[in-house]
Each structure stands twice: as C-alpha cells, then as structure tokens.
Sequence to fold (338 residues):
Amino acid sequence: MKKSIPYCLLLLVSLWLFSCEKADEYSSAPRENFEALWKIMDEHYCFFEYKDVDWNDVYARYSVQVTDTMKQDQLFKLLGEMLNELKDGHTNLISSFDVSRYWKWYEDYPANFSEDIQENYLGTDYMIAGGMKYKKLSKDVGYIYYGSFSNAIGETNLDYILMYFKDCKAIILDVRDNGVGSLTYSDRIAARFLDNKITTGYILHKTGTGHNDFSRPYELTLIPSERVRWLRPVVVLTNRHCFSATNDFVNKMKMMPHTTILGDRTGGGSGFPFNSELPNGWSVRFSASPMLNAAMEHTEFGIDPDVKVNMLTEDMQRGKDTLIEAALQLIERMNIKI
Fold:
C-alpha cells in the first residue's frame, strides 16, 4: 500500500533545493546569461516531454541570435521569447525593468466574465470575509465570489459564510478570473465540501538533470474539515482565467459528489513553480514539479467543465450573466430537500 508523504514536507524540501540555486558570480555578458538560462531550464523544467518541446532545437535557433554587443533590454526580450517556446504561464524572466510572461494560454478564449455585469447580482450590499464576497441571490441560493487565492481566507471566515447560507438549498461558487494564489487556501476551501478523505492527485519531483528524471508519484490527499461543511449542491463557475491554484481547486471540486463545474475550460498551470538566478541577477521562475489529477493525468492545459457555457452577447446587452443564469436554472431543476 502506498504511503502518502505530507505535501507540506515535500514542498519545504523542494523549496530548499531550488531557493539555494543562485549564480556564483556576477556577469552581464549576454552569452553567459543565455547559456545559464538554457541550462537551468534544461535540467529543471518539468514539461518538455508532455509539451513535445525540443529544447536542443530551441537552443540552436536562439543561440545564433546572441551577440556580445547586445544591450540588456535586447537580451531580455530574446530570453523572454525563448522561454515562451514552453507555452507556460508559470514561466517568467524577472529583471529590475520588466517581467516576461506568456499569456497566449488564455488570449484565444472568450472572457466569460464581466465585473460590471456581476454588480447587477452582487449590488453594493454584499458581505466580505477573507477576500470572499457573498450574498443570497434568493432565499434558496447563495452566491460566493472568490477573485484571488492570494487573499487569505481563514477557517472562521468560512464558518461564518457557510452558516450564513444555512437555509439555502444550493451555493454558486464563482472563481472566474482567479489566476494566482496559494494551494493552502485551495485545500482549506475544498475541505468544506468533502464528506470522506479522498486522493486528489499526485506530485512528482525532479531527481536528476534528464528531462524524464522524476521521482515516483507522491499521493496528495484531502480530508474533510472538522468545522462547518456544506454537503448540499454547489455550482462552481469557471473561465479560462482560472489558473494555477484555481486550476488545482477546480480539480478538487470536480471530485465532490454534490458539485457541478459550469462555464469554460480552466487555464491550467499545474506545474509547481520554483526560482533560480542568472549571473546578471535576473531571476527565472518556472514549472519544476508536475502535479497530476487522481487519474494521474496532466491538467497543465486546463480542466473541462461538466457543463460548457459561454457568455452570450444578447445576455450581456441586457446586463445578464449567462453563467450565473445557467447555474440558477440548473439549481432550479434539482430536487433539493433540506
């Protein structure tokens, strides 16, 4: 029988290993920094095979563009373009004057969210706790909007919110446009909708410099909260901007027996990010540890909803949110007794 290593321990070990990786000596030489970045990624990035990236080919194409007379901004642009070959929203080059980023993972998708239209549902009399906005849309349906997993949400916050909805039949939990944050809050919130301990996925760690040098998969588990829980229907609203910790949260919620994921495919971002440093002091952030779902499948490119819904132009023109309306209709069709 597999033994599950505590996730916090794995995280601490990995953070220690990677946080120590800094350039030994300062150098602004373009060639040296190019070589250092390529090598860091070659030895530590975790999705080369999954994304079918030929990193040696990338080297050949970009190496010839490096010159000794390049200015720092020119070098930065070139290195950023090289990193974009990985198509990874968790991969950034960070300098004192810019941050390279890959945004095409969401740019070709519909927004499926409008703050202005959301105000028609939230109004100004909503409540706020731990970064969550919440109110009753009717006597039977509660609505929660959590816009960032960077906003700390405490256990007491969640107790108050769920108790506020104790007379409701269902909750709409909206995490659209939530693209950053902590996995701690993903676990903390998901545990409130759980009845029994479950395996939510697996994490692997690099064990060598080869592209496929990984540890065995370590099981990630989630146990039900010992505090106030919600075991009635939940509809989770998603769009393509649901990334990283939110992608992880949707993966967990998709496993809950009373939960329906409604909206668009999430943005993905399942590689756990770490940092390293170049000789000129720039830092690079990249995916170093792949996280898989319970079926040992990658979710790096996103998670499909149970019910696919896009915002409709005619609804938006009338100030209606198609996803919220679809969630309300879904709940209305449920035979819910409390």
Q: What stands out?
A: The first strand starts at residue 92 and ends at 94.
